[in-house]
Specification:
heterotrimer, A alpha+beta (208), B mainly alpha (316), C alpha/beta (892), A: alpha+beta, Alpha-Beta Plaits, three-stranded mixed β-sheet, two-stranded antiparallel ribbon, 7 helices, 9 strands, 25% helix, B: 316 residues, mainly alpha, Formate dehydrogenase/DMSO reductase fold, disordered N terminus
C-alpha cells in the first residue's frame, strides 16, 4: 500500500525528450501515442522572455475525472493510488478522454508502423506490437501506469530512470519522509489545472 | 489542431457519436411530441401516432451508432452492471427504459397490434412513463457532454437546455415530415409547424447565449472561436444557423403547404445533426498554462511519418 | 531478470556503449528472444551513470530500419553528382572486396598518399584506432573528419588544447557559481558528456549557480539561464575582449598570483618585435621583484608549482631594462591592447548594451572570489588550492566563424584573467584529460609537461598533431596542404577553390587523389553548399567506396561501392571513452574506460568496419604494417607505450582477429586479468580519479599563454613558405589575412557583419537540436517523431515582430537566400526567444536522399547556404564561417 506520486522539477528540466522516448520505447507505444510527452512554452516578451518545457503524463489524480465518467469501473485507482485501466471490463466508449483534463489518454485502434506498408515488418515492431497488445490492447484507452511492470521488479518508471537532468522524482506521497513529500513542501510544489479539482499526484516545482 | 497536439481539442468523438446524439434526441423528441399530441385530443391521434412511431426506431438506430463507436462492444453489457456511476451508465438506463416503453407503445398502438387504441387510460399511463424517459433521453445527451468538466465549452447548464429544445424541435420536424409525406395539407400539421417556429426562436436565443458565454470565458474561448470563425465555422454558419434554423424558420413562417413543410423539416433535421457534430468537435480543453507559461499549440505543416522511399537493393 | 511476458525464453541486458553521437555514454541493451527491444543507461559507467538521452534511447530503430544498407551495393550509373540516380545493384561481398582491393592496389602502386580517408565524428572511437592504424599501415596522411570535424571544433579543440590540454572546456558545475556561456548547449543537450553534464548543470541550478548565456536565440541553455543576453551572431570574441577590458581596465580585477606563476603574463617582451626577452641561453625572462633582476622563467625562485609553494614575486606590470632594452610584460601589453574594446565599442559590434557588458564583467570578477582557497584531499594528503567559482565556456556557435581561433582564445582568456582554470569551481578541461592512470599499470597516462619556454605541452592527444608547440610549417604533402598550417586541425582548402588540382600543382604536390574511403560521413550535406562540395571536391576522386549504414546523399551522389557497415550495436570497439574528448565527464567521479560489444551479430550481410579493414589489409598484403599502425597509434592516444607482449605482431608471423586486438589493448592498459572477457561483464573498466587530476592546475609545472608570442613566428613561417610557392598574391588561392598570426587577441568581423546590402537584412545560423547529431539521426523514426513534437526543431525560428513586418505568419513556407544566390526552403515558427534580426535553423536537416525517406524533406538544409571560400575561412584555424546573411521571402 502506497500512494505513488511524482515530482517534476521544472528548474532542472530542460526539455530534452528523454522521458518521452524512454516511455515510448519501454511501453512500445505506436506512432502518435505518447504516454509521457513534453509541451514547450514561452513566457514574457523579448528580450525578457523565457522558454520552458512542461513534461506531462497521467497525473494519477486522487479524484480522477476519468474514473468519475467511466461507465463500467474499468478505470480505477489501484491500491497504490495508481490510475489503471482494466481492459477486460472497458467498453471503449472514450468518455474518459473527455473526463481527463490533461490529455493523458490515447486511443489505439491498431498498432501502426513507423514505416510504410509493403515493407517487411521489422522484428522490433513485431515484438512491440505483440507486447503492446498483450499489455494494453486495442480499442481501449491506453495511458501511463507509472510503469507497473518495472515497479514490480523494483525499478523506477522508465521516464524517471532516463532523465539526464534528474528532474523527475518518483515516490510515496504517504511517506512524509520521502523525497517527493519533502520537495513538494519545501519547493512550493504545484499541480496543473487545479481548478478542475482532480487533485493530481504529479507535482511540479517552479522553474525559477 | 488535434488532441495529438498538446491534448487540446478532442478528436475521439466524431460523426458516430453526433449521429447517436442526434437520433436519440430527435427520436425521443418525436415520441414526446406524439404523446403530448395524443393528450390533446382524438383529432391529433394520427399525427400523434407518427410521432410515437418515430421514437423507438430512431433511438434504437442511434444506440447502434453508439455501439459502433465502442472500442470493445463485447463489453457493452457491463455498462448496465454499474448504474449511476456515470452519465453513460445513467443514460443507458434512461434509454433502455425509453426503448422498452416506446417499443410497447409502438407495437401495441400502431403496428402490428392495436390493443392500446381503445385503452386510453393505459395508453396515457404508458405515455406519461414514456414522456418522462423521453425527456430524460433528450436532456441526457446534453448532460453527457456537460459532465466532461475539463471541457468548459460543454460544461454549462445551457447545453442540456439547448439539446432539449433542439431535440424537441427536430422531433416535431420529424413528425411534420412523416405527416406531410402521408397526408395532404393539414391545418394541424401547420399548427405544429407554427409551434416549431417558437422552438426555433428559442433555439436561436439559447444558442446565442451559449456561444456568447463560451466566447467570454477564457477557458472555452478557443472552442467558441473554432465554431464562429475557425475550422468549424462553415459547419456552424451554413449547417446549423442557415440550414438548421433560418431556412425552416422562414419556410414555416411564409409557406403553408405540404411540400415546403417537408423541405423545412429536412433542412431542420440536417441542421440538428450538424449542431451535435459542431458541439462535439469544438470540445476542447484550455491550454496547459502553468507557472506563467503558456504552452500554446503551434500551427505547423503536417509532415509524413511513415514516408515511402527507395529501399536499398537486396533488402526486399 | 524477470521477463515481461510469459513465453519469452531470453531476456538479457548487455552492457556496451552508445554510438548515436560522439559523446559515448555507457548503455545497457535489452535483448529479448534475440531482438534488441530497449536501451537504458549503464549505472556502472561514469559517462552516463545510468541516465541516457533521447538519441541513445532510440538506438533499436537504427538496428532494424528497413532502409539500412544490408548488402554490398555497386553503382551502375557512371555519372556522378547531386540528383544522379546511382542505379545501385546488389553485389556479393567477394565482388565488392575484389573491386575495392584492386582499386586500392592501383592507388598503392601509383602513390599510397592518393588514398583519402573521410570519416565522421559519430564514429570517433573507430577513427582514433582503426582508421588511423590503417592510414599508417597503408601510408597515406590524407584524411578528414568531414563536417563535424571542420565546423564544430576546428578552432575550439585546438585552442582548448593549448589552454587546458583538453578537447573542450566546461564549468566545474559542482562548485561554479557564475558561468558565462557563449553559443553552446553544454549541459543542456550538447553531445559533450551529454547526460553527466546535464545532471551536473541541473545540480548547479538547483544549488543556485548562475549562468549568463550570450546567444542570438534562446537555446536550451539560455532558457535555463539566470540571464539570457541576446547577441548578434559571430560577435562573441568582441564580447569576451570587452569583458577582459572591463575586468582589467574598468574594475581592476585580475588574479595576479595565477597570472604570475601559471601563465606567460610576466614574460618580458621586447618592444621591437614582440618576442620574448631571452638571455644568452635562449631562455625567456621574467622580472624578479624580490631580487630586482631578470630571471629565467623556470628559475626555481620564480616557479610556484603547487599553491602552497613559496616563490619570489615577479613583475606583471611596469617597465624594466634588460641588456639595455626597455621592455614590459605580456600582461601590460594585453592590458593596453584590450582598451579599445570599450563597452561602447563592443555594444556597436554585438548589440549588447555597454552597461550590461560592464555589469557582467563586474559580477564575474566579484564572483571569482580571487584570493580564496579551498583544501582538497589529494593522493598525497590535503592540499590548499585556489577556489575560483566562475567560468566562461563556449563551443560551436561562437567558434564557427572567421574569427574562430581568436574568439576561442578571447573567451577563455576571461577565465585566465581571474585564475579560473582547472581549479576548484573554474573552467575545467572537457573531456577530463589529466590522468595519472590506473595505478597497477600506470596507464592511460596523460600528463602535461612544459616546453622549453615553460608553456604546456599535452602529454597525450587525440591525434599526433599536438596543439602546442606548433610544428614547423613544411612543404605540403597532404592534399589539403595541411602541413603548412600548424594551428589548424582540418581545412576546406580542397573545396574552396574551383580547381583543387591547380593548387596541388602550385604547391608541387606530385600526386592526385584517386580513392576515397568513406566511413560513415555524409559530406555532401555536412560541409557546406552541397553543389560546391560535390563538384569541387568529391567528384575529383576516381573511385569512392563507403562504409555506411544508409544510402545517404553522399552515396547517391558519388559512391561507387557501398559496404553495409555494422552499427554500434553490432560491433566490438576496444576503447570508446578514451582518448578523452567529449566522452568523459569532468569532475570527481571515477575514470571509466568503456568498450563496445555486439548485442546481436551483424544482421543480414552487414559487416563490422574494423573486421573488413583487417580483411582488406590482409588482401593488400599490408597486415603487419596495419598492426604496426595500430601499435603506433596507441601511445599518443591512449596514454603510454604498449608492452611488447601485447603488441600486435609486426613481422608477419601471426594474424590477429579483431576480438584479439580488442583484448590485447585492454590487457595492455589494465593488466592480464582485465582483458575483454573481464571488461565486457560491465561494459566498462573503472578506477578512481585523483583529486589532483581533476583540479590539476596547481599541481603541474606548466604555464599557459595569454600572450601568444609563438604565433608571430608561426605566421612568419607560413607566409614565407607560401611566398616560396608564389601563393601569397592578392586574389590568389590562399589570399587570407595572415597578419592575424600575432601575439594579442583581436576580434575580426564575419562576412555577415561587413555586408552592406540592406536587402539581406537577416542573420541566420544553425543550432543543434537535442534529438539530432550530425546527419544520421534524422532517419530514425522515433527521433523524427520527437522532432515533430517540438515546436522549434523543424521550423525556421523567426521573431513575431520580424514576421509581422515582413507579412509572414506561422507555418508559412519561405525561402531564405544568401547574397551568392543559394537558397533553402523552410517554414516559419514564431517565437519571442530570438534576437529579431536572426533566423535560427536546427540540425543537418532537409535531407533529399531517396533512400532516407523519414529524413527526407524535413527541416531546412542550412549548410547549403554556407559558402566555402576564402572570405569564409579563419586564417588562424582555417575554420569555416557558418553564419550567413540572408533575405527571407514567401515561397509558393
Amino acid at each position: 500500500m502506497a500512494r505513488y506520486g511524482m515530482v517534476i522539477d521544472l528548474k532542472r528540466c530542460y526539455g530534452c525528450y528523454s522521458c518521452v522516448m524512454a516511455c515510448k520505447v519501454k511501453n512500445h507505444t505506436p506512432p502518435g501515442v505518447f504516454w509521457a510527452r513534453i509541451l514547450k512554452g514561452e513566457a514574457g516578451k523579448y528580450p525578457n522572455v523565457v522558454r520552458q518545457a512542461l513534461p506531462i503524463l497521467c497525473m494519477h489524480c486522487e479524484d480522477p475525472g476519468c474514473v468519475k465518467v467511466c461507465p463500467t469501473g474499468a478505470t480505477y485507482l489501484d491500491e497504490d493510488g495508481v490510475c489503471v485501466i482494466d481492459t477486460d471490463i472497458c467498453v471503449g466508449c472514450k468518455y474518459c478522454f473527455m473526463g481527463c483534463p490533461y490529455g493523458a489518454r490515447y486511443a489505439v485502434e491498431e498498432w501502426g508502423s513507423y514505416f510504410p506498408e509493403g515493407l517487411p515488418v521489422t522484428p522490433l515492431e513485431e515484438f512491440q506490437a505483440r507486447a503492446f497488445e498483450e499489455k494494453s490492447g486495442f480499442g481501449v484507452p491506453t495511458k501511463c501506469d507509472f510503469c507497473a511492470d518495472r515497479r514490480s521488479f523494483g525499478k523506477e518508471p522508465s521516464c524517471v530512470a532516463a532523465c539526464p537532468a534528474e528532474a523527475r522524482i518518483f515516490g510515496d506521497l504517504d511517506d512524509p519522509d520521502s523525497e517527493i513529500s519533502f520537495l513538494i513542501k519545501t519547493r512550493r510544489g504545484f499541480v496543473l489545472k487545479p481548478e478542475v479539482g482532480t487533485n493530481p499526484k504529479v507535482y511540479y516545482l517552479p522553474p525559477r | 489542431m488535434s488532441s495529438k497536439l498538446h491534448g487540446l481539442v478532442q478528436t475521439e468523438w466524431g460523426w458516430l457519436i453526433a449521429i447517436y446524439l442526434f437520433l436519440a434526441g430527435a427520436g425521443a423528441g418525436a415520441y414526446v411530441t406524439g404523446v403530448v399530441l395524443d393528450f390533446m385530443g382524438p383529432e391529433w391521434a394520427t399525427i400523434a401516432k407518427i410521432g410515437v412511431f418515430f421514437g423507438f426506431p430512431s433511438v434504437l438506430i442511434g444506440t447502434l451508432f453508439l455501439l459502433a463507436d465502442l472500442g470493445k462492444v463485447q463489453n457493452a453489457w457491463r455498462v448496465a452492471t454499474k448504474p449511476g456511476t456515470s452519465w453513460i451508465a445513467r443514460g443507458t438506463i434512461i434509454i433502455s427504459v425509453f426503448l422498452i416503453v416506446s417499443f410497447i407503445h409502438l407495437v401495441f398502438w400502431i403496428f402490428p397490434f392495436s390493443g392500446l387504441e381503445n385503452a386510453d387510460g393505459l395508453r396515457h399511463l404508458l405515455g406519461i412513463v414514456g414522456l418522462i424517459f423521453g425527456i430524460g433521453t433528450m436532456v441526457y445527451t446534453g448532460l453527457l457532454l456537460g459532465d466532461a468538466i475539463p471541457i468548459p465549452f460543454w460544461s454549462t447548464v445551457l447545453l442540456p437546455i439547448l439539446f432539449f429544445v433542439s431535440a424537441l424541435s427536430t422531433g416535431i420536424m420529424a413528425t411534420i415530415l412523416g405527416s406531410s409525406l402521408l397526408f395532404q395539407d393539414s391545418d394541424l400539421v401547420h399548427g405544429l409547424a407554427r409551434f416549431d417556429i417558437l422552438l426555433l426562436v428559442m433555439e436561436i436565443v439559447i444558442l446565442s447565449a451559449f456561444l456568447h458565454g463560451a466566447h467570454r470565458l477564457p477557458s472555452s474561448q478557443h472552442s467558441a472561436k473554432e465554431v464562429l470563425f475557425g475550422g468549424l465555422s462553415r459547419f456552424f454558419w451554413m449547417g446549423v444557423a442557415l440550414c438548421g434554423i433560418l431556412i425552416p424558420l422562414l419556410i414555416d413562417a411564409i409557406f403553408h403547404n405540404n411540400f415546403m413543410a417537408i423541405v423545412a423539416a429536412l433542412f431542420g433535421l440536417a441542421g440538428g445533426l450538424i449542431l451535435r457534430y459542431v458541439v462535439l468537435k469544438a470540445g476542447a480543453m484550455p491550454p496547459m498554462d502553468a507557472a506563467g507559461f503558456s504552452f500554446r499549440p503551434v500551427s505547423k505543416p503536417k509532415l509524413p511519418m511513415a514516408a515511402r522511399g527507395m529501399v536499398p537493393p537486396g533488402n526486399l | 531478470m524477470t521477463p515481461v511476458r510469459p513465453g519469452i525464453k531470453e531476456d538479457v541486458w548487455i552492457p556496451t556503449c552508445c554510438g548515436q553521437c560522439y559523446c559515448m555514454c555507457g548503455i545497457r541493451v535489452r535483448r529479448q528472444d534475440g531482438i534488441v527491444t530497449e536501451i537504458e543507461g549503464n549505472p556502472d559507467a561514469p559517462t552516463g551513470r545510468g541516465n541516457i538521452c533521447v538519441k541513445g534511447l532510440a538506438g533499436p530503430q537504427l538496428l532494424y530500419d528497413p532502409y539500412r544498407v544490408n548488402y554490398p551495393l555497386k553503382r551502375t550509373n557512371p555519372r556522378k553528382g547531386i540528383g544522379e540516380d546511382p542505379k545501385f545493384v546488389r553485389i556479393s561481398w567477394e565482388e565488392a572486396l575484389d573491386t575495392v582491393v584492386r582499386k586500392l592496389k592501383e592507388a598503392q602502386e601509383y602513390d599510397p598518399r592518393s588514398v583519402y580517408f573521410q570519416a565522421t565524428t559519430t564514429q570517433a572511437s573507430e577513427i582514433r584506432f582503426g582508421v588511423i592504424g590503417f592510414m599508417k599501415g597503408f601510408g597515406t596522411p590524407n584524411y578528414w573528419v568531414s563536417g563535424g570535424g571542420l565546423h564544430c571544433g576546428n578552432g575550439a579543440h585546438f585552442m582548448n588544447g593549448i589552454m587546458h590540454m583538453a578537447w573542450s572546456i566546461i564549468p566545474d558545475f559542482a562548485n561554479c557559481n557564475y558561468a558565462l556561456n557563449f553559443g553552446c548547449s553544454k549541459g543542456h543537450g550538447a553531445g559533450h558528456s551529454a547526460v553527466m553534464n546535464a545532471t551536473q548543470a541541473a545540480d548547479a541550478r538547483a544549488r543556485g549557480g548562475k549562468t549568463v548565456v550570450f546567444d542570438p536565440f534562446q537555446s536550451a541553455q539560455a532558457s535555463k539561464a539566470w540571464e539570457w543576453v541576446p547577441t548578434r551572431v559571430g560577435t562573441d570574441g568582441a564580447i569576451a575582449l570587452g569583458l577582459v577590458n572591463s575586468l582589467l581596465n574598468e574594475h581592476g580585477i585580475w588574479d595576479a598570483e595565477y597570472l604570475k606563476y601559471k601563465t606567460n603574463a610576466p614574460y618580458l617582451i621586447r618592444p621591437s618585435d614582440g618576442r620574448y626577452m631571452r638571455n644568452e641561453k635562449g631562455k625567456a625572462l621574467v622580472w624578479d621583484l624580490d631580487d630586482n633582476c631578470p630571471k629565467e622563467h623556470d628559475d626555481p625562485s620564480v616557479m610556484r608549482v603547487e599553491y602552497e609553494d613559496q616563490a619570489h614575486d615577479v613583475a606583471l606590470q611596469g617597465k624594466y631594462v634588460v641588456d639595455g632594452v626597455e621592455c614590459t610584460t605580456g600582461f601590460e601589453l594585453l592590458k593596453e591592447h584590450v582598451k579599445k574594446y570599450s563597452p561602447e565599442y563592443v555594444e556597436k559590434i554585438s548589440w549588447i548594451p555597454a552597461a550590461t557588458i560592464s555589469r557582467i564583467a563586474k559580477e564575474f570578477g566579484e564572483a571569482a572570489e580571487i584570493g580564496s582557497t579551498v583544501t582538497i584531499q589529494t593522493s598525497k594528503g590535503p592540499k590548499q588550492v585556489p577556489k575560483r567559482p566562475v567560468a566562461t565556456h563556449f563551443f560551436r556557435g561562437s567558434q564557427g566563424h572567421v574569427n574562430s581561433g581568436w574568439t576561442c582564445l578571447s573567451i577563455d582568456m576571461v577565465n585566465h584573467i581571474v585564475g579560473a582554470a582547472d581549479t576548484v569551481g573554474a573552467a575545467l578541461g572537457l573531456g577530463a584529460a589529466v590522468n595519472s592512470g590506473y595505478e597497477p599499470t600506470g596507464k592511460p597516462y596523460q600528463m602535461p609537461y612544459p616546453c622549453p619556454d615553460g608553456l604546456m605541452v599535452a602529454g597525450a592527444w587525440v591525434y599526433d598533431h599536438l596543439p602546442y608547440p606548433l610544428h614547423e610549417p613544411r612543404q605540403p604533402q597532404r592534399l589539403d596542404l595541411h602541413d603548412m598550417f600548424p594551428t589548424s586541425i582540418y581545412n576546406a582548402i580542397t573545396i574552396m577553390n574551383d580547381n583543387w588540382f591547380d593548387l596541388l600543382d602550385q604547391f608541387k604536390i606530385p600526386y592526385r587523389p584517386k580513392v576515397m574511403i568513406n566511413f560513415g560521413s555524409n559530406s555532401v550535406m555536412t560541409m557546406g553548399n552541397a553543389e560546391i562540395v560535390t563538384e569541387n571536391f568529391l567528384k575529383k576522386f576516381e573511385f569512392i567506396f563507403s562504409f555506411q549504414l544508409y544510402v545517404t546523399e553522399f552515396e547517391e551522389a558519388v559512391a561507387d561501392i557501398v559496404l553495409p557497415d555494422a552499427c554500434y550495436l553490432e560491433r566490438y570497439t576496444p576503447a570508446v571513452s578514451f582518448p578523452s574528448t567529449f566522452s568523459h565527464p569532468q569532475g570527481e567521479d571515477d575514470w571509466g574506460w568503456t568498450i563496445r560489444q555486439p548485442v546481436v551479430e551483424p544482421l543480414f550481410e552487414r559487416r563490422d568496419f574494423n573486421v573488413v579493414m583487417l580483411d582488406i589489409s590482409k588482401r593488400l598484403g599490408i597486415l603487419p604494417k596495419y598492426y604496426k599502425g595500430l601499435n603506433d597509434a596507441v601511445p599518443m592516444r591512449y596514454g603510454g607505450p604498449m608492452e611488447d607482449k601485447y603488441k600486435l605482431c609486426e613481422d608477419g608471423s601471426q594474424e590477429h582477429t579483431w576480438v584479439d586486438i580488442c583484448d590485447r589493448l585492454l590487457k595492455d592498459r589494465f593488466g592480464e586479468e582485465h582483458g575483454l572477457d573481464f571488461v565486457r561483464k560491465k561494459g566498462v573498466f573503472t578506477w578512481p580519479k585523483k583529486k589532483e587530476d581533476v583540479y590539476w592546475k596547481w599541481f603541474q609545472s606548466v604555464r599557459v599563454p595569454i600572450y601568444f608570442e609563438y604565433f608571430i613566428d608561426g605566421g612568419e613561417k607560413i607566409t614565407k613558405l607560401m611566398d616560396s610557392y608564389g601563393a601569397l598574391g592578392k586574389g590568389g588561392p590562399l589570399d587570407l589575412d595572415w597578419s592575424r598570426f600575432k601575439a594579442l587577441a583581436d576580434w575580426y568581423p564575419c562576412p555577415t557583419h561587413t555586408l552592406d546590402n540592406p536587402e539581406y537584412d537577416m542573420h541566420t545560423f544553425y543550432w543543434r537540436a537535442v534529438m539530432h547529431c550530425n546527419s544520421l539521426t534524422q532517419q530514425n523514426p522515433w527521433l523524427d517523431e520527437m522532432s515533430q513534437e517540438d515546436p522549434y526543431v523543424y521550423a525556421l525560428q523567426v521573431h513575431y515582430d520580424t514576421a509581422r513586418e515582413k507579412g509572414l505568419k506561422e507555418g508559412d513556407k519561405v525561402w531564405i537566400e544568401n547574397p551568392e544566390g543559394h537558397r533553402v526552403k523552410g517554414w516559419i515558427g514564431l517565437t519571442d526567444g530570438i534576437e529579431p534580426h536572426h533566423i535560427a535553423v536546427a540540425a543537418v536537416a532537409g535531407h533529399w536522399g531517396e533512400y532516407q525517406p523519414i529524413a527526407k524533406g524535413k527541416g531546412t538544409f542550412f549548410n547549403d547556404l554556407v559558402e566555402m571560400d576564402r572570405d569564409h575561412t579563419d586564417p588562424l584555424t582555417l575554420n569555416q564561417d557558418i553564419c550567413v546573411r540572408v533575405k527571407i521571402y514567401k515561397a509558393d
